Amino acid sequence: MDDFEAELKKIFLEEAEQGVAEAERYFLELDRNPGDRAVLEGLFRIAHNLKGSSGACGFRNLSLFTHELESLLFSLKSKGQPVNIATVNLLLRCNDFLLQTVLALKNNPEFKGDDDQLLGEIKKAIQRRVEVPEVATENSSSSFQESSLAQEFLPAEEATPAQEFLPAEEATPTQESLPAEEATPT
């Protein structure tokens, strides 16, 4: 590692430590006020910056971890629902992990950390926030298609599920989305 790269990593780790301290204040505020969108926006911004900067500095594991954390925070801020205590506790544990990782990287830039369990919990929390019931209960007064929950999760009428929910590179093209020379007549 040359001097420039070493200095860049040192500056990043100092700023990351400050960012994690700022996130701690946001998490404590979120614990007091779980519906505060501004707090979630602030946390998302910190995670987004940490993800990009850690990747640029070559801290791949830290970047991958903060990518998943950023995804959870995006899910939380986009749903508009108060955050429950279990999620706040998970976020606080993530922040503790981030602080421990940043401090360890200061001492050993090759530190990898063991984030598998916490990453699994983040992924489960994200999945719980996007799961959609497949059928309405017998006692429901309306069908699932008409429920407000369905309106939140179902794709827009003009979009196919692949176009709405998959990244562009994974979506299966429809006849309408193919260039004229590739589309088959219907």
Q: What keywords describe this structure?
A:
186 residues
What's the gist of this structure?
The chain is mainly alpha-helical. It has helices at residues 3-32, 37-56, 60-79, 85-107, 116-130, 148-153, 161-165.
Kindly describe this structure.
By secondary structure, the chain is mostly helical. Helices cover 64% and strands 0% of the residues. The protein has seven helices and no strands. The protein has helices at 3-32, 37-56, 60-79, 85-107, 116-130, 148-153, 161-165. α2 runs antiparallel to α3 and α3 packs parallel to α5. The longest helix is centred in the first third of the chain and has 30 residues, at 3-32. The radius of gyration is 21 Å and the shape is elongated. Residues 132-179 have low confidence and may be disordered.
Distance between the termini: 60 Å
Q: How is the quaternary structure best described?
A: single chain
> Whole-number radius of gyration?
21 Å
Q: What is the number of helical segments per DSSP (H or I, 4+ residues)?
A: 7
The whole-number mean of residue pLDDT values reads: 76
Low-confidence stretches: 132-179
Q: Profile the largest sheet.
A: none
Q: Given the C-alpha coordinates, what overall shape results?
A: elongated
Strand content: under 5%
